[in-house]
Design brief:
- The protein has eight helices and ten strands.
- With 249 residues, the chain is an alpha/beta fold.
- The protein has one domain: 3-Layer(aba) Sandwich (Rossmann fold), CATH 3.40.50.300.
- The radius of gyration is 18 Å and the shape is globular.
- Bound molecules: adenosine-5'-triphosphate and magnesium ion (MG).
- The site of magnesium ion has 2 residues, from helix 1.
- Pfam families: ABC_tran.
- Keywords: ATP-binding, Nucleotide-binding, Transport.
- It comes from Chitinophaga ginsengisegetis.
């Protein structure tokens, strides 16, 4: 594993002012993530996981504290610079897939590439098809989201996250809507991507999903209460093989 830090968080605080009340969603979060790590962020509902992930993904800014993404101090950047950084370095995967309806899988995956004016129509197509191949869905390129299963829709969303070849994938409850088998399939894909060198930060509140990662950061009430390496990373492919046959449930 290379030793360069992809993320460096120091004393990150995020407060939301709601009328006369202030919600302190993050109360001073500090940790680093190194290139090639597969980190899960755990914690109960309201502990600050999504707030933290939005900051990591430059979708939101902290109230205070410093955040370096691949060595770049994010707080000094303009909105345009942030959007550029986000588009080049980060792939997002959400619980609700966030695919465009009535739009083919291939076109959904092509979307992030429209921000890159240097790409020709053919290059855009080829890259999107390559990303669909990486998630084993090339044979579904013409299907719209409603013509795909939940797990397939999530794989399209992962292909879309991969198409700009980001250094890091951020996922927020990406298996939250999926059954056990499909969740494990998504985790097997995440483990493959991690093997290929992608850094992954994956929010979940399910311990059996966190077992597939190599490190878990536990949040409680806006603070890190535990940050531990997982010595026995579970193989999602083995977990899949150990499940009873699909028709049994
Ligand atoms: N935009 C916002 N405005 C005001 N308060 C917010 C906002 N976003 C989050 N919060 C508050 O910040 C706290 C952390 O919320 P967050 O969404 O990060 O939790 P979470 O750990 O992702 O929970 P869940 O597991 O339910 O998704 C909560 O108390 C929430 O109500
Ligand atoms: Mg959340």
């Amino acid at each position: 594993m290379s030793s360069n830090k992809i993320l460096e968080l120091q004393q990150i605080k995020r407060e939301f002012v709601m009328g006369t009340e202030t919600v302190r969603a993050l109360k001073g979060v500090s940790f680093d993530v190194f290139a090639g790590e597969f980190v899960t962020i755990m914690g109960s509902s309201g502990s600050g996981k999504t707030t933290l992930l939005n900051i990591l993904g430059c979708l939101d800014k902290p109230t205070s504290g410093s955040y370096l993404l691949d060595g770049v101090n994010v707080s000094g950047l303009s909105r345009n610079e942030l959007a550029r950084l986000r588009n080049h370095k980060i792939g997002f995967v959400f619980q609700a897939y966030n695919l465009l309806p009535r739009t083919s899988a291939l076109e959904n995956v092509e979307l992030p590439l429209f921000y890159n004016p240097e790409l020709s129509v053919q290059e855009r197509r080829d890259r999107a098809l390559g990303a669909l191949q990486a998630v084993k869905l090339a044979d579904r390129e013409d299907h719209t989201p409603s013509q795909l299963s939940g797990g397939q829709q999530q794989r399209v969303a992962i292909a879309r996250a991969l198409v700009n070849q980001p250094v890091m994938i951020l996922a927020d409850e990406a298996t939250g809507n999926l059954d056990t088998r499909t969740s494990y399939e998504i985790m097997a894909l995440m483990q493959d991507l991690n093997q290929e060198g992608k850094t992954i930060v994956f929010v979940t509140h399910e311990p059996d999903i966190a077992a597939f990662s190599s490190r878990t950061v536990m949040l409680r009430d806006g603070k890190v209460v535990k940050d531990s390496k997982n010595e026995n990373v579970r193989s999602a492919k083995e977990a899949l093989a150990a499940l009873p046959p699909a028709e049994d449930y």
